[in-house]
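Session log. Operator J.P. requested a structure for one protein chain; no other inputs attached. Running the standard single-chain path with token output.
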Amino acid sequence: MTQFFKYQGTGNDFVMIDNREGGFDDSIKNVEFLCHRRFGIGADGLILIENAEGFDFRMRYFNADGKEGSMCGNGGRCAVKFASDLGIFETATSFIAVDGPHHAMVENDEVSLGMIDVEEIIDETNGYFLNTGSPHLVIFQENLDNLDVKTQGAAIRYSDYWLSRGGVNVNFIQIIDNENLKVRTYERGVEDETFSCGTGVTAAAIASSVKKGLSQKIKIQTLGGKLEVSFEGEQKFSQILLKGPALFVFKGDA
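Structure written below.
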């Protein structure tokens, strides 16, 4: 039996496991089973908290398809809250993930997560590409509420162009005003629209500021709730902060 914890950040939900003593079966079959919404616990992904020399902890993220994935922003915020609840740290932490070191702060149920620097924005035929720890395509869109995100996102994600580049997450963005966006995301690995995507809204905020002239501090409405992204820079971007709620849901044994 393995004790698990369920956390969610703006509707992006994760199975969390304290694996500091090792022993968890991280096979594709087992992780996919635990994330399955009908036969398992149900989640967008699974996160392991492990020991890491020089850091408070290591975060390992697995997509719902069972494969170890790239960085997950909301998952990172939930991992920070989970580690805080475990007593690993109190308010400030330094941890390492697949894309490198991160710093974060916890205040009650809100987590501010430092993201990796973004080196460039690449103009693509139908949008803008950024790597914010995970690869994202940003597409500006009107009437976002009426968009079939799963169908259109999958068509782009599985196109020959993006498959040859390892796949991509697809973010559809509607500008509300200079400091507010609405974002909906199709996530690879989940292969569906999710309620929220942390690395996706980070990409959306930076692209909106650079390409559309919006502020460098932007509030984002997702299906699962509100997030805030701030950053510095004009061509290369640093001091990127992803801020929003991270909440414990329940725990059990599997």
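Operator note: The chain has two domains: 3-115+246-253, 122-243.
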